[in-house]
Amino acid sequence: MILENWLYNGLIGIQTQNCPPLTKDISCDCLVIGGGFSGLHAALRLIESGKQVVLVEKTICGGSSSGKSGGFLTPQTENDIWIIEKNHGKENGKIIFDIPQKGVDMIVSIAKKYSFKCDLRKQDSMYLAIKEGDIEELKVEAEVRKKAGLPYKLYNKKNLASIHPSKSYFSGMKFSGSYGINSLTYCQELKNLLIKKGVKIYEGTEVNKIFKNIALTHRGNIKAKNILVCIDKMKTEFDEEISKKYYHVQSFLAVSEPLTKEEKKKIFPKEELMCWDSNDLYLHYRIVEDDRIMLGGQSYLTIFSPNYSYSPKVINNIIAEFKDRFPFLKNLNFTHFWPGLLDVTKDLNPIADYHPRNKSIQYTLGCAGLPWAAFCGDYIARRVVDPKTEDLSGFLGINRKFFISDNLQKYLGKILSFSISNLRSLY
User: Which residues does residue 340 pair with via DSSP β-bridges, in sequence order?
Assistant: First the structure.
């Protein structure tokens, strides 16, 4: 098993345009900083609204968190719907859990409309009870979905075996509206589309700081009327105040060798599913190109680590647990693994809002999931285009209240503040 992002193999099948670094001072109507799902969808909304758009990315488009993702396009959030309603109320809860569905619809619509080569595949979501005590939790979630008019189907242990046999699961809840995708090739395909539409893109160009309405880079500066910051793992030097607002959790992904037809049929007898379990640090997996298994998970030892962990120990434990659930895959080899740092806020809802003192600058930060990222990028772009855009600052605001305030965070430290707050959001 090699330390390498397997998703890069998908780039072999598409022609990506060369976007050299910025080498001079320029100006524009709208500057988008960051070429992941947030930044690319923000740029698309802006250019289609007649704006002059420049996008800069420090590596290649999709080269950071977006292009290391497992490609789950699911309307499910990190919080179950019943927890969202408990924390925000029924009416506000519906607004929140509608957001990732809108993000899924946006991504799928674009991929289909422009025939992107991104391994887009329909895969219903399957939420699995890994402990007998979690059966009731799935029933509560199902009841909330029923009242909200959302699709779902509950499976007991016996019925579950007909669509996803495993010795480990006690029940499952399946729902539609989800897809799998190669997130890196999607980013590169969207980059190509943006160039055709007139967006000027500079890869290999890192913005070090924003001074008033000027973005400073190593070889040239960009002056813009509107600046949309769509980056992850923000350095303190970029903006000390804003960088305190979000942190990250570390996850690991691995990809197997291709399954045989018999192995694939045995794990998914009727249809491909994207699966995750009810553990706090859940395993998640789905079928990807060439009938491989993409498997992901986390470890308590590394989840809030400030730096990437490249040791294969964590992913080897995850693989061993997965094989224990599916003994008939005991001889399956995993060929690639890689770590990722997923940005989160203290309540697990992203930030998509104006700078507290400069409304010509907006941020989208802490998007835990590709659908959230796509929606938030599009949302802050719509706020540039249309002043009447809905105000979601009550849920996505940069200065909304958290369980642990910024002042208390000064004493507890960033890692402890976010770990405590994330656990509270989940429960």
Answer: 251
Q: Which positions ≥6 away from 363 have C-beta within 8 Å? A: 228, 229, 230, 242, 351, 352, 353, 354, 355, 380, 398
What digits encode the pLDDT tens for the residues 326-373?
999 999 999 999 999 899 988 888 999 999 999 999 999 999 899 999
How many whole angstroms separate alpha carbon 165 and alpha carbon 386?
50
Mean pLDDT of the chain: 92
How buried is residue 162: exposed, middle or buried, by Cβ count under 10 Å (0-12/13-18/19+)?
exposed
Residue bearing the bigger pLDDT, 83 or 404: 404
Which of the listed ranges 4-18, 74-88, 201-215 does the model predict with the highest average pLDDT? 201-215
Nearest in space to 157 (alpha carbons), one of 141, 170, 168: 170
Phi-psi region of 426 (alpha: psi -120 to 50; beta: other; left: phi over 0): alpha
| Nearest CA-CA partner of 71 in 28, 33, 113, 118 | 118
CA–CA dist 269, 21 (Å, integer):
48
Paired tokens of 258: 């291709």
Strand 200-202, strand 53-56: pairing = parallel
Q: Same CATH fold, 124-177+248-344 and 2-69+183-246+347-426?
A: no
DSSP E strand boundaries for 110-169: 121-122, 124-129, 153-156
Q: At 82, is the pLDDT very low, low, confident or very high (cuts 50, 70, 90)? A: low
Q: Which superfamily does CATH assign the domain made up of 124-177+248-344 to?
A: D-Amino Acid Oxidase, subunit A, domain 2 (3.30.9.10)
Residue 135: the pLDDT is 93
Helices 37-48 and 90-113, axial angle in degrees (round to 10): 80
| CB 40 within 8 Å of CB 201 | no
Rounded distance between C-alpha atoms, residue 169 and residue 156, angstroms? 9
Query: Alpha-carbon Rg of the chain, whole angstroms?
Result: 21
The angle, 0 to 180 degrees and rounded to 10, between the axes of the packed helices 81-88 and 90-113 is 130
For residue 76 the two structure tokens come to 């499910």
The average pLDDT across 192-210 equals: 97
Domain boundaries of the chain, sorted by first residue? 2-69+183-246+347-426, 124-177+248-344
pLDDT at 32 over 90: yes
Architecture of domain 2-69+183-246+347-426: 3-Layer(bba) Sandwich (3.50)
Host H or E run for residue 172: strand 171-175
C-alpha separations of 126 from 4, 70, 298, 321 in Å: 28, 15, 19, 18
Q: pLDDT: is 285 or 415 the higher one?
A: 285
